[in-house]
């Protein structure tokens, strides 16, 4: 079963491909998406990564939460469903 992760505090310069590459070392990435502002077309500073295996997702959270990506400390945790 796949697991969706929330990735916050992303540097403005990170794109979908760079986000995917950051997580690939921890398992199979099904999708990686940096959320963009509709009005400006710029990054909103967060994104989502979907990983194929929940244990790989847990490893990615443990390794990447509070780690540095392009000079910013990122936050990684399991995405919560919209309410």
Structure overview:
By secondary structure, this protein is an alpha+beta fold. A hairpin with a 2-residue loop joins β4 and β5 (72-73). The strands form 2 sheets. A 4-stranded antiparallel beta sheet has the order 2-3-1-6, with helices on one face. Strands 4-5 form a two-stranded antiparallel ribbon. It is globular, with a radius of gyration of 12 Å. The protein contains 2 helices and 6 strands; from the N terminus they run βαββαβββ. Helices cover 24% and strands 37% of the residues. The chain has a single domain (3-78), classed as Alpha-Beta Plaits. It has helices at residues 16-24, 54-64, and strands at residues 3-8, 29-36, 43-51, 68-69, 72-73, 75-78. The model has no long low-confidence stretch (mean pLDDT 97).
The gist of it:
The protein has 83 residues and is of the alpha+beta class. The protein has helices at 16-24, 54-64, and strands spanning 3-8, 29-36, 43-51, 68-69, 72-73, 75-78. The chain has a 4-stranded antiparallel β-sheet with strand order 2-3-1-6, with helices on one face. Strands 4-5 form a two-stranded antiparallel ribbon.
Strand order of the largest sheet: 2-3-1-6
Task: Give the low-pLDDT segments.
Answer: none
Structural class by helix and strand composition: alpha+beta
Distance between the termini: 22 Å
Label this structure with key terms.
4-stranded antiparallel sheet; 6 strands; 83 residues; globular; Alpha-Beta Plaits; alpha+beta; 2 helices; two-stranded antiparallel sheet
Compile the SSE list and pairings.
Elements lengths: L2 E6 L7 H9 L4 E8 L6 E9 L2 H11 L3 E2 L2 E2 L1 E4 L5
Antiparallel strand pairs: 1-3, 1-6, 2-3, 4-5
């Amino acid at each position: 079963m796949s697991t969706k992760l929330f990735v916050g505090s992303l540097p403005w310069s990170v794109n979908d491909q760079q986000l995917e590459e950051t997580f690939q070392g921890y398992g199979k990435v099904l999708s990686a998406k940096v959320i963009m502002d509709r009005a400006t077309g710029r990054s909103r500073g967060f994104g989502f990564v979907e990983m194929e295996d929940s244990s790989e997702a847990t490893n990615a959270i443990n390794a990447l939460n509070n780690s540095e990506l392009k000079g910013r400390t990122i936050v990684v945790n399991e995405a919560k469903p919209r309410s």
